[in-house]
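If you are new to this repository, start here. Below is one unmodified record pulled from the training split, so you can see the exact layout before writing a loader.
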Amino acid sequence: MTGFTQDRLGWRPWLAPLTEEELTDAHYEALVDKARAASPYFLLLARDPDILHARTKTDVDIFYNADGGLPRAERELAATATSRRNGCVFCASVHARFASHHAKRPEDVQRLLDEGVGAPQDGRWRAVIDAAVALAATPEQLGPEHIAALRAAGLDDLAISDTLQAAAFFNWANRLMLSLGEPTPQEDR
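And here is the target side for that same chain:
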């Protein structure tokens, strides 16, 4: 597998996922969006529909809830930085594309992928990346200095909460994905 990229990647599970033919109404409800049935990752997680449903509703709320807080681009940036720090090539590619699209800053996102989490970024992005990476390392690494930097960058309590939720969710999601399979050079169709 090549390094970090904004290209679309595939993902191959090490355990047998369900097939689309095996999905029941309960599985489709757990997927939240039927299009996820084309993903080997979601087909594997569908083996436990109750957990998949809770996981997916949490993911959707963190990234798609537009009721104030952090803009979508920076939620995706937090997920990208966390994934880059954790070595999850697949998740980093997905969230880097979203961050690039929503922020209209593909060069800055690519620098994060190419040079790592310490790559130069502007003040607000630096604060989001640093907080996400600290939380990904271990919760004790996230300190008052990270919160102060987020506040100094103009984030209010809800935006800070969104930053931490995006980072924490992807810290968990990266570890799950990394333990269940591996990225492939191109999307499996």
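Two things worth knowing about this chain: Residues 72-176 form a domain with the AhpD-like fold (CATH 1.20.1290.10). Strands lie at 10-13, 181-184.
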